[in-house]
Amino acid sequence: MTPVAERRPERIVETAPAKINLALHVTGRRDDGYHLLDSLVTFAEDGDELVFETADSDSFRVVGRFGTELSQDDNLVLQARDLLRAALDAQGQPYRQVAITLDKSLPIASGIGGGSADAAAALRGLSRLWKADLPAQTLLEIAIQLGADVPMCLASTPLRARGIGEAIEKAAMPSVPLVLLNPLKPVSTPEIFRSLTRRDNAPIGEMTAAPNVSEWMKSLSVLRNDLQPRAEALVPEIAEACDLLRQSLAGFVRMSGSGATCFGLYETEAAAMKAALALSAYRPNWYVLLTRTVPGEI
Protein backbone atom coordinates (compact mmCIF):
# COMPACT_ATOMS: atom_id res chain seq x y z
CA MET A 1 0.00 0.00 0.00
CA THR A 2 1.33 3.43 -0.90
CA PRO A 3 1.31 5.79 2.13
CA VAL A 4 -0.67 8.99 1.76
CA ALA A 5 1.58 12.02 2.12
CA GLU A 6 0.61 14.35 4.92
CA ARG A 7 -0.19 17.86 3.71
CA ARG A 8 2.01 20.32 5.53
CA PRO A 9 0.53 23.66 6.59
CA GLU A 10 1.57 26.59 4.46
CA ARG A 11 3.48 29.19 6.46
CA ILE A 12 4.09 32.89 5.79
CA VAL A 13 6.15 35.26 7.97
CA GLU A 14 5.63 39.00 7.71
CA THR A 15 7.37 41.85 9.54
CA ALA A 16 5.37 44.84 10.77
CA PRO A 17 8.08 47.53 10.79
CA ALA A 18 8.01 50.49 13.15
CA LYS A 19 6.69 53.67 11.51
CA ILE A 20 8.77 56.81 12.10
CA ASN A 21 7.26 60.29 11.62
CA LEU A 22 10.21 62.46 10.64
CA ALA A 23 7.75 65.36 10.48
CA LEU A 24 4.04 65.64 11.30
CA HIS A 25 2.23 68.89 10.51
CA VAL A 26 -1.42 69.26 11.54
CA THR A 27 -2.97 71.33 8.76
CA GLY A 28 -6.73 71.23 9.46
CA ARG A 29 -9.70 69.22 10.64
CA ARG A 30 -12.59 67.74 8.69
CA ASP A 31 -16.23 68.09 9.70
CA ASP A 32 -16.23 64.46 10.87
CA GLY A 33 -13.48 65.22 13.40
CA TYR A 34 -10.57 63.62 11.53
CA HIS A 35 -7.47 65.81 11.50
CA LEU A 36 -5.72 66.67 8.24
CA LEU A 37 -2.01 65.94 8.28
CA ASP A 38 1.10 66.43 6.20
CA SER A 39 3.69 63.91 7.32
CA LEU A 40 7.11 62.74 6.19
CA VAL A 41 7.39 59.07 7.13
CA THR A 42 10.04 56.39 7.08
CA PHE A 43 10.16 52.87 8.50
CA ALA A 44 12.61 50.89 10.58
CA GLU A 45 14.07 47.57 9.48
CA ASP A 46 12.71 45.99 12.68
CA GLY A 47 9.26 45.66 14.22
CA ASP A 48 6.65 43.11 15.26
CA GLU A 49 6.55 39.75 13.51
CA LEU A 50 3.46 37.88 12.35
CA VAL A 51 3.29 34.21 11.35
CA PHE A 52 0.36 32.89 9.27
CA GLU A 53 -0.25 29.15 8.87
CA THR A 54 -3.08 27.29 7.20
CA ALA A 55 -5.05 25.36 9.81
CA ASP A 56 -8.25 23.38 10.45
CA SER A 57 -9.69 26.28 12.46
CA ASP A 58 -8.96 29.94 13.04
CA SER A 59 -6.76 30.92 15.98
CA PHE A 60 -4.88 33.99 17.17
CA ARG A 61 -2.04 34.06 19.65
CA VAL A 62 -0.05 37.04 20.94
CA VAL A 63 3.44 36.53 22.36
CA GLY A 64 6.52 38.69 22.92
CA ARG A 65 7.69 41.39 25.30
CA PHE A 66 4.51 43.48 25.02
CA GLY A 67 2.12 40.65 24.16
CA THR A 68 0.36 40.57 27.53
CA GLU A 69 -0.76 44.18 27.06
CA LEU A 70 -2.84 43.37 23.96
CA SER A 71 -6.38 42.05 23.69
CA GLN A 72 -6.61 38.83 21.71
CA ASP A 73 -10.33 39.26 21.04
CA ASP A 74 -10.67 42.67 19.39
CA ASN A 75 -7.34 43.14 17.63
CA LEU A 76 -6.77 45.01 14.37
CA VAL A 77 -5.10 41.89 12.99
CA LEU A 78 -8.38 39.99 13.29
CA GLN A 79 -10.30 42.90 11.79
CA ALA A 80 -7.87 42.91 8.86
CA ARG A 81 -8.35 39.15 8.40
CA ASP A 82 -12.13 39.45 8.36
CA LEU A 83 -12.23 42.44 6.01
CA LEU A 84 -9.86 40.71 3.60
CA ARG A 85 -12.04 37.60 3.65
CA ALA A 86 -15.13 39.70 2.89
CA ALA A 87 -13.34 41.26 -0.09
CA LEU A 88 -12.30 37.81 -1.36
CA ASP A 89 -15.87 36.58 -0.94
CA ALA A 90 -17.14 39.49 -3.01
CA GLN A 91 -14.66 38.55 -5.78
CA GLY A 92 -15.41 34.82 -5.57
CA GLN A 93 -11.85 34.04 -4.49
CA PRO A 94 -10.96 31.25 -2.03
CA TYR A 95 -9.34 31.44 1.39
CA ARG A 96 -8.68 29.00 4.22
CA GLN A 97 -8.77 28.93 8.00
CA VAL A 98 -5.61 30.39 9.49
CA ALA A 99 -3.56 30.26 12.67
CA ILE A 100 -1.98 33.66 13.37
CA THR A 101 0.82 34.35 15.85
CA LEU A 102 1.78 37.94 16.62
CA ASP A 103 5.17 38.46 18.26
CA LYS A 104 4.68 41.88 19.86
CA SER A 105 8.10 43.47 20.35
CA LEU A 106 7.11 47.13 19.77
CA PRO A 107 5.61 49.10 22.69
CA ILE A 108 1.84 49.57 22.69
CA ALA A 109 0.33 52.96 21.70
CA SER A 110 3.76 54.50 21.28
CA GLY A 111 3.57 56.59 18.09
CA ILE A 112 5.40 54.13 15.82
CA GLY A 113 2.55 52.37 14.07
CA GLY A 114 2.02 49.45 16.44
CA GLY A 115 -1.45 48.10 15.77
CA SER A 116 -1.62 49.81 12.38
CA ALA A 117 1.62 48.15 11.30
CA ASP A 118 0.31 44.78 12.53
CA ALA A 119 -2.96 45.21 10.59
CA ALA A 120 -1.05 46.17 7.44
CA ALA A 121 1.26 43.17 7.85
CA ALA A 122 -1.83 40.96 8.20
CA LEU A 123 -3.18 42.26 4.89
CA ARG A 124 0.17 41.60 3.19
CA GLY A 125 0.77 38.21 4.79
CA LEU A 126 -2.74 36.82 4.33
CA SER A 127 -2.81 38.04 0.73
CA ARG A 128 0.29 35.95 0.11
CA LEU A 129 -0.98 32.93 2.05
CA TRP A 130 -4.33 32.89 0.23
CA LYS A 131 -2.79 33.93 -3.10
CA ALA A 132 -5.31 36.77 -3.25
CA ASP A 133 -5.69 38.62 -6.53
CA LEU A 134 -7.26 41.88 -5.43
CA PRO A 135 -6.80 45.33 -6.97
CA ALA A 136 -4.44 47.62 -5.07
CA GLN A 137 -7.35 50.04 -4.62
CA THR A 138 -9.36 47.36 -2.80
CA LEU A 139 -6.52 46.73 -0.34
CA LEU A 140 -6.18 50.48 0.17
CA GLU A 141 -9.90 50.79 0.94
CA ILE A 142 -9.62 48.00 3.51
CA ALA A 143 -6.60 49.72 5.05
CA ILE A 144 -8.48 53.03 5.38
CA GLN A 145 -11.33 51.22 7.17
CA LEU A 146 -8.83 49.87 9.69
CA GLY A 147 -7.29 53.25 10.56
CA ALA A 148 -5.65 56.40 9.22
CA ASP A 149 -2.10 55.02 9.66
CA VAL A 150 -2.76 51.64 8.04
CA PRO A 151 -2.40 52.76 4.38
CA MET A 152 1.11 54.10 4.98
CA CYS A 153 2.02 51.00 7.00
CA LEU A 154 0.71 48.87 4.14
CA ALA A 155 3.30 50.55 1.90
CA SER A 156 6.07 50.39 4.56
CA THR A 157 8.40 52.47 2.41
CA PRO A 158 9.56 56.10 2.87
CA LEU A 159 6.70 58.37 1.88
CA ARG A 160 4.81 61.58 2.33
CA ALA A 161 1.26 61.19 3.64
CA ARG A 162 -1.46 63.82 3.41
CA GLY A 163 -5.19 64.04 4.01
CA ILE A 164 -5.97 61.88 7.04
CA GLY A 165 -3.04 59.66 6.03
CA GLU A 166 -4.52 57.98 2.97
CA ALA A 167 -3.02 60.27 0.28
CA ILE A 168 0.43 58.75 -0.13
CA GLU A 169 3.37 59.39 -2.42
CA LYS A 170 6.75 57.70 -2.24
CA ALA A 171 9.74 59.76 -1.14
CA ALA A 172 13.48 59.41 -1.72
CA MET A 173 15.34 58.91 1.56
CA PRO A 174 18.66 57.39 2.62
CA SER A 175 18.97 54.40 4.93
CA VAL A 176 20.57 55.59 8.17
CA PRO A 177 21.25 54.14 11.65
CA LEU A 178 18.36 54.77 14.03
CA VAL A 179 17.85 54.53 17.79
CA LEU A 180 14.35 54.44 19.28
CA LEU A 181 13.87 55.51 22.90
CA ASN A 182 10.59 55.22 24.80
CA PRO A 183 10.07 55.88 28.54
CA LEU A 184 7.18 53.39 28.48
CA LYS A 185 4.68 55.97 29.67
CA PRO A 186 1.16 55.82 28.18
CA VAL A 187 0.15 58.62 25.83
CA SER A 188 -3.45 59.23 24.77
CA THR A 189 -3.56 60.23 21.10
CA PRO A 190 -7.16 61.55 21.32
CA GLU A 191 -6.23 63.66 24.36
CA ILE A 192 -3.28 65.19 22.55
CA PHE A 193 -5.38 66.09 19.51
CA ARG A 194 -8.12 67.53 21.74
CA SER A 195 -5.59 69.73 23.52
CA LEU A 196 -4.12 71.28 20.36
CA THR A 197 -4.46 75.06 20.38
CA ARG A 198 -3.98 75.33 16.62
CA ARG A 199 -5.03 72.99 13.81
CA ASP A 200 -4.32 75.08 10.71
CA ASN A 201 -0.53 74.92 10.63
CA ALA A 202 1.51 75.33 7.45
CA PRO A 203 2.16 72.16 5.43
CA ILE A 204 5.62 70.75 4.90
CA GLY A 205 6.28 72.36 1.52
CA GLU A 206 8.50 70.99 -1.20
CA MET A 207 11.48 68.88 -0.20
CA THR A 208 14.65 69.17 -2.28
CA ALA A 209 17.23 66.43 -2.64
CA ALA A 210 20.19 66.68 -0.26
CA PRO A 211 23.74 65.87 -1.43
CA ASN A 212 24.56 63.74 1.63
CA VAL A 213 23.11 62.32 4.87
CA SER A 214 24.32 65.24 6.99
CA GLU A 215 22.57 67.80 4.77
CA TRP A 216 19.45 65.64 4.63
CA MET A 217 19.24 65.63 8.42
CA LYS A 218 19.69 69.41 8.49
CA SER A 219 16.82 69.81 6.02
CA LEU A 220 14.54 67.94 8.43
CA SER A 221 15.29 70.37 11.26
CA VAL A 222 13.11 73.10 9.72
CA LEU A 223 10.09 70.76 9.91
CA ARG A 224 7.97 69.98 12.98
CA ASN A 225 5.91 67.49 14.86
CA ASP A 226 2.93 69.61 15.87
CA LEU A 227 1.91 67.02 18.47
CA GLN A 228 5.21 67.05 20.34
CA PRO A 229 4.72 70.17 22.53
CA ARG A 230 1.38 68.87 23.85
CA ALA A 231 2.80 65.36 24.35
CA GLU A 232 5.76 66.75 26.31
CA ALA A 233 3.35 68.72 28.52
CA LEU A 234 1.42 65.55 29.31
CA VAL A 235 4.46 63.25 29.62
CA PRO A 236 7.61 65.18 30.64
CA GLU A 237 9.75 62.09 30.07
CA ILE A 238 9.35 62.67 26.33
CA ALA A 239 11.39 65.87 26.56
CA GLU A 240 13.96 64.02 28.66
CA ALA A 241 14.19 61.26 26.05
CA CYS A 242 14.86 63.81 23.31
CA ASP A 243 17.50 65.52 25.45
CA LEU A 244 19.25 62.20 26.06
CA LEU A 245 19.29 61.46 22.34
CA ARG A 246 20.77 64.89 21.61
CA GLN A 247 23.44 64.27 24.24
CA SER A 248 24.26 61.01 22.45
CA LEU A 249 25.21 63.16 19.43
CA ALA A 250 22.36 62.12 17.16
CA GLY A 251 22.27 64.14 13.96
CA PHE A 252 18.50 64.56 14.17
CA VAL A 253 16.11 64.02 17.10
CA ARG A 254 12.32 64.09 17.29
CA MET A 255 9.25 62.41 18.75
CA SER A 256 7.35 60.08 16.42
CA GLY A 257 3.58 60.33 15.99
CA SER A 258 1.81 61.21 19.22
CA GLY A 259 4.60 59.65 21.33
CA ALA A 260 5.99 58.56 23.57
CA THR A 261 8.64 57.04 21.28
CA CYS A 262 11.46 59.43 20.39
CA PHE A 263 14.22 58.70 17.91
CA GLY A 264 17.69 59.76 16.90
CA LEU A 265 19.25 59.46 13.45
CA TYR A 266 23.00 58.93 13.21
CA GLU A 267 25.56 59.17 10.45
CA THR A 268 27.44 55.99 11.41
CA GLU A 269 26.62 52.56 12.84
CA ALA A 270 29.32 53.03 15.48
CA ALA A 271 27.76 56.25 16.77
CA ALA A 272 24.30 54.68 16.92
CA MET A 273 25.56 51.58 18.71
CA LYS A 274 27.46 53.67 21.26
CA ALA A 275 24.30 55.73 21.88
CA ALA A 276 22.07 52.66 22.26
CA LEU A 277 24.43 51.04 24.76
CA ALA A 278 24.74 54.24 26.81
CA LEU A 279 20.96 54.86 26.82
CA SER A 280 20.23 51.25 27.83
CA ALA A 281 22.64 51.55 30.74
CA TYR A 282 21.36 54.98 31.85
CA ARG A 283 17.65 54.15 31.54
CA PRO A 284 17.48 50.33 31.93
CA ASN A 285 13.69 50.35 32.37
CA TRP A 286 13.04 52.24 29.14
CA TYR A 287 12.62 50.77 25.68
CA VAL A 288 15.71 51.12 23.48
CA LEU A 289 16.05 49.74 19.96
CA LEU A 290 19.05 49.99 17.65
CA THR A 291 18.03 49.56 14.02
CA ARG A 292 18.14 51.32 10.62
CA THR A 293 15.66 53.15 8.45
CA VAL A 294 14.75 51.56 5.13
CA PRO A 295 15.89 53.29 1.92
CA GLY A 296 13.36 55.03 -0.27
CA GLU A 297 13.36 55.65 -4.01
CA ILE A 298 10.84 57.51 -6.12
From TrEMBL:
Gene3D superfamilies, per the entry: 3.30.230.10, GHMP kinase, C-terminal domain (3.30.70.890)
Keyword Ribosomal protein among UniProt keywords: no
Entry EC number(s): 2.7.1.148
Coiled coil: none
Listed pathway(s): Isoprenoid biosynthesis; isopentenyl diphosphate biosynthesis via DXP pathway; isopentenyl diphosphate from 1-deoxy-D-xylulose 5-phosphate: step 3/6
KW Nucleotide-binding (keyword) present: yes
GO MF terms, alphabetically ordered: 4-(cytidine 5'-diphospho)-2-C-methyl-D-erythritol kinase activity; ATP binding
Binding positions for ATP per the UniProt entry: P107, I108, A109, S110, G111, I112, G113, G114, G115, S116, A117
Active site: K19, D149
Gene Ontology terms describing biological process: isopentenyl diphosphate biosynthetic process, methylerythritol 4-phosphate pathway; terpenoid biosynthetic process
Annotated ranges, domain GHMP kinase N-terminal: 75-154
Catalytic reaction equation(s): 4-CDP-2-C-methyl-D-erythritol + ATP = 4-CDP-2-C-methyl-D-erythritol 2-phosphate + ADP + H(+)
Ranges of residues in domain GHMP kinase C-terminal: 213-282
Keyword annotations from UniProtKB, A to Z: ATP-binding, Isoprene biosynthesis, Kinase, Nucleotide-binding, Transferase
InterPro entries named in the record: GHMP_kinase_C_dom, GHMP_kinase_C_sf, GHMP_kinase_N_dom, IspE, Ribosomal_Su5_D2-typ_SF, Ribsml_uS5_D2-typ_fold_subgr
Physiological role: Catalyzes the phosphorylation of the position 2 hydroxy group of 4-diphosphocytidyl-2C-methyl-D-erythritol.
Family annotation (NCBIfam families): ispE, PRK14608.1
Entry-linked HAMAP family: IspE
Record protein name field: 4-diphosphocytidyl-2-C-methyl-D-erythritol kinase
Taxonomic source organism: Rhizobium rosettiformans
